[in-house]
Inverse folding.
């Protein structure tokens, strides 16, 4: 099942000489790989890359290799220059630093599919610390905020970035929630906040695959098990299906939980 | 039939509207920043509003299969309030964002010196950021307002073909067309312009450089007006190509001057793709509207969209 698409809305886009900007339609940069009009994956989506690395876990080197293989030449050149600039001028200059401008325009230069990875790389190149990441996050679009969240585990060793994760977990934007429950949250969120993050994933339909270190943190968490069984009971009482992910997490909490009877025994 | 509403305030609309718009064929919208009905008292409330137009609202739109872009500016009415004018200093850092496809809506409300200043300054900002500008014409003293607007546009660094003059009507269309600007018409239930008058204007002046919008907001308005104009155009003898030109290709060409239009709705994929770097390859249902996972909400929405074949498509 696929989302509705609007690709047919850009006639001629596939035949434009310059794949970055289609003069016939005025549409901006298009992703090199993406999804065809009927929702079938194209390009990179079907290549043999196993896709096991995630934005939150891939090293900068892996990310760069991934992008270099997929961006077309103009986008590749733009990214190379943007990273060089960020390395050479990591600080703030004038009202806004050059690398922050590059963060802002990454979508139209690299296409929406690759913008996250490009932004994470620029943040790396600029050696953005917790203060810089906070500024980019709070002054950012949804897409820029997402990239900051993905960059956190690599760039901030301590808990200084937690307010950004907590901010993202308060939103109902599933793209932000997904990015917020990565390795940084696994490392730094306290037990109460982490349990609520897991529950929020179940509530908003974010697959718990996105939750970093889920097995380890859920193990023997009787309070999480209680919250899950209560939620399952609430769903059942309302005559609604219990998300499959809930049973999965409940199983991970191990001994106390009995997934087959989620509505009982844990009042 | 594919429709692009080039001026609609979705922040003021419900999810029912999004669903009805999608069913009617609307696949892309541009949301100009504007007056919220209740006056703002500080730049901070502008910034929260801009952030919403770059964050939450495009997410909402994407959940309904609609591409969302915005135009940002200090609106003419609040340009008169000294407490708000400082937002002009914050605009540059917003005008570089990916989803910002124009500066707007700017123009005149009461034609005051403060409005002169804000209009001229923001036309320069548009030129500096290589963005087009959405300039509305005032409700009161419209023809005089249009002339003064065109004077300021001609004095600015922005080429006329980067300017969309909006809320036009029978008395202002000719001079606006002669200026070389793009022509915007807001079709409302009972003011400004209706479908019949819109079609008559299209017959008299042709479809070149004409954009039609619903300008739907928190007032009495109808987010399906683009579709109603399209239907009446067909009934009155215009062909499908004319309709596509006015209601899709013209707005794509105008806002495309920003180099920032992305008409593929890719964002919901992030939900069920998790945080894989290989986003863009849908794996199946998941995610979607908040707070209702069990029933597979995204799948349900996709089904609904799939089943609602776009009328006339
Ligand atoms: Zn408006």
């Amino acid at each position: 099942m696929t989302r509705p698409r609007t690709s047919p809305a850009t006639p001629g886009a596939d035949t434009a000489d310059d794949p970055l900007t289609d003069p016939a339609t005025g549409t901006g940069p298009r992703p090199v790989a993406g999804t065809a009009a009927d929702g079938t994956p194209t390009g990179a989506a079907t290549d043999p890359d196993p896709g096991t690395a995630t934005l939150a876990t891939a090293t900068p080197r892996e990310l760069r290799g991934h992008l270099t293989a997929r961006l077309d030449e103009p986008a590749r050149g733009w990214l190379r220059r943007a990273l060089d600039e960020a390395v050479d001028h990591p600080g703030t200059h004038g009202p806004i630093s050059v690398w922050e401008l590059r963060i802002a325009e990454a979508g139209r230069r690299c296409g929406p599919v690759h913008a996250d990875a490009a932004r994470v790389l620029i943040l790396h190149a600029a050696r953005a610390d917790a203060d810089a990441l906070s500024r980019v996050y709070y002054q950012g679009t949804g897409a820029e905020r997402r990239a900051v969240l993905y960059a956190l585990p690599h760039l901030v060793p301590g808990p200084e970035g937690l307010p950004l994760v907590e901010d993202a977990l308060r939103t109902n934007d599933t793209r932000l929630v997904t990015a917020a429950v990565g390795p940084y949250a696994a490392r730094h969120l306290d037990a109460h906040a982490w349990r609520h993050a897991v529950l929020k994933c179940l509530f908003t339909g974010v697959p718990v695959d996105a939750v970093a270190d889920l097995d380890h943190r859920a193990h023997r968490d009787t309070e999480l098990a209680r919250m899950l069984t209560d939620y399952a009971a609430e769903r059942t009482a309302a005559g609604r299906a219990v998300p499959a992910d809930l049973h999965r997490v409940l199983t991970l909490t191990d001994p106390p939980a009995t997934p087959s009877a989620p509505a009982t025994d844990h009042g | 039939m594919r429709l692009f509403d080039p001026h609609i305030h979705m922040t003021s609309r419900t999810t029912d509207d999004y669903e009805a718009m999608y069913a009617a064929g609307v696949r892309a919208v541009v949301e100009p920043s504007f007056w919220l009905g209740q006056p703002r008292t500080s730049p901070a409330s502008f910034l929260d509003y801009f952030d919403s137009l770059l964050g939450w609202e495009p997410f909402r739109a994407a959940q309904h299969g609609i591409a969302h872009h915005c135009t940002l500016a200090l609106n003419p009415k609040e340009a008169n309030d000294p407490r708000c004018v400082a937002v002009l200093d914050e605009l540059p850092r917003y005008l570089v964002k990916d989803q910002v496809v124009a500066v707007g809506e700017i123009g005149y409300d009461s034609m005051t010196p403060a409005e002169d200043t804000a209009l001229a300054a923001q036309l320069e900002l548009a030129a500096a950021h290589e963005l087009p500008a959405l300039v509305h014409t005032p409700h009161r003293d419209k023809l005089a307002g249009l002339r003064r607007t065109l004077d300021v546009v001609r004095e600015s660094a922005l080429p006329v073909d980067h300017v969309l003059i909006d809320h036009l009507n029978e008395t202002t269309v000719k001079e606006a067309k002669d200026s070389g600007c793009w022509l915007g018409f807001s079709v409302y239930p009972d003011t400004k312009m209706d479908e019949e008058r819109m079609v008559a204007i299209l017959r008299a002046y042709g479809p070149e450089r004409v954009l039609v919008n619903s300008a739907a907001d928190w007032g009495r308005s109808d987010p399906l007006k683009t579709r109603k104009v399209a239907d009446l155009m067909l009934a009155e003898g215009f062909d499908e190509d004319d309709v596509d030109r006015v209601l899709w290709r013209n707005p794509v060409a105008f806002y495309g001057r920003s180099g920032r239009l992305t008409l593929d709705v890719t964002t919901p994929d992030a939900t069920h793709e998790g945080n894989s770097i290989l986003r863009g390859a849908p794996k199946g249902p998941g995610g979607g509207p908040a707070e209702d996972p069990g029933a597979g909400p995204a799948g349900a929405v996709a089904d609904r969209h799939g089943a609602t074949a776009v009328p006339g498509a």
Q: What stands out?
A: Residues 240-256 of chain B form the longest helix (17 residues). Residues B 7, 9, 32, 34, 105, 215 surround zinc ion (CB under 6 Å). Residues 267-313 of chain B have pLDDT under 50 and may be disordered. The CA atoms of residues 229 and 235 of chain B lie 10 Å apart.
